[in-house]
Specification:
The chain has one domain. Helix content is 76%, strand content 3%. It has five helices and one strand; from the N terminus they run H-H-H-H-E-H. Helix 2 crosses helix 3 and helix 3 runs antiparallel to helix 4. The longest helix is centred in the first third of the chain and has 30 residues.
Length: 146
């Protein structure tokens, strides 16, 4: 790829990082501000045992915030994008499982804002879309390190 292609790829990757960071920073902060609400959302999926819900609640929001920040350092962008991609795979699984069970869980992804709630199909589409964006940032990051 020529110099122009590299510049365009870098610009698109940076835009992707801004979008991902914005999504995960907002999602993490909203959850941190309402950990009890997030715990109820996690429980609504009926997938995580009650004894593990506190660990999930203590981990996910802070991981989202840290990954959002770490996307902007060359040394950590690959790890952050990998973590976000893996979280999106997990979120997709959670939604697919909810769909399989026929339940409509309280997503809690962005708090209890009714405009941002998602049914299982919407949640699957959203998680896959964000996961693909994260995977593309990861691929560009890996190529730049070669």
């Amino acid at each position: 790829m020529g110099r122009m292609g590299n510049t365009r790829t870098n610009q698109l990757s940076f835009i992707g990082k801004i979008i991902l960071a914005g999504i995960f920073l907002v999602a993490g902060i909203v959850k941190v501000n309402d950990l009890n609400g997030f715990a109820q959302s996690v429980a609504s999926f009926k997938l995580v045992p009650a004894s593990l819900i506190p660990a999930v609640v203590a981990t996910i929001p802070f991981t989202e915030i840290f990954c959002a920040i770490l996307l902007f350092w060359k040394r950590t962008e690959g790890g952050a994008a990998t973590t976000i991609t893996l979280m999106c795979i997990g979120f997709t699984f959670f939604y697919a499982y909810a769909w399989f069970l026929g339940i409509e869980p309280d997503c809690g992804c962005f708090g209890n804002n009714p405009l941002l709630q998602a049914n299982p199909i919407q949640g699957i589409i959203r998680a896959i879309t964000i996961g693909l964006l994260s995977a593309s940032v990861l691929i560009v990051s890996a190529k730049q390190k070669r």
